[in-house]
Amino acid sequence: MKTLQKKLNAFESIIVAFIIFIAIFLFLSIPAFFNYESFKDELKKNIYKDLKIYINNLSEINYRFYPAPHLVIEKADFNLEKNDQLIAELDNLQVYVSLSKLYSNKKIEIRKIKIENSNFYLDKNSILSFKDHFQKKINKPIQIINNNFFYKDKNEQVNAISPIKNLNYFIDFNSRVKKLKIKGNLFDVPYNFIWIKNYNKPNISNLTINFKNPNFRKENESEKKPEDDNKK
Hints:
Layout: H1 2-29, H2 40-51, E1 54-56, E2 61-64, E3 70-79, E4 88-97, H3 99-105, E5 110-116, E6 119-122, H4 124-136, E7 142-152, E8 158-172, E9 177-186, E10 189-198, E11 204-211, E12 216-223, H5 226-230
Parallel strand pairs: 5-7, 6-7
Antiparallel strand pairs: 1-3, 2-3, 3-4, 4-5, 7-8, 8-9, 9-10, 10-11, 11-12
């Protein structure tokens, strides 16, 4: 009798676990049936509001719940300035969102974005735009994985390529610190780059870059003066 009771208890536990698993799966999967065509304008607006970047010409949008709830935009254009030259054409841009907001009232609340396997084309103006973004913008996390950065001269000729294995750009709001961390390669030399800005001392930023083979390390602290803005 005890053996039978144990078997019944084990069976009930399996059934309960199975029901919970199915319920969670359904809860996570339901947003996949939403019509995301109607989300495009809101998505573009919120990406600019939360990340201070422009994403345009969005193609098909799909929902995925693994490894965390996110939207996948098949193709999109990336820029830092509204009417500036295009910086990148993105494939499968991942926009991580709040599931509760999406599920309850179909609102987009962005947690971070992830960009993979795309090419960025930079020139003097776009690099200045990136610098301005680092210094002035408040943004949610941006992650870039396995992308190539091409630098073009004034004649539109590519004269430098830097494959980026991993780039993380985020603000830790608890410590009030903004960080840009890059692991990449320049002229076939691997490097690690870290740029830090502490909002308790907003005019001061710290930069560290480590090259490998040959080994080289440089650290620098710079102070932004009010007249720097007047030069623009």
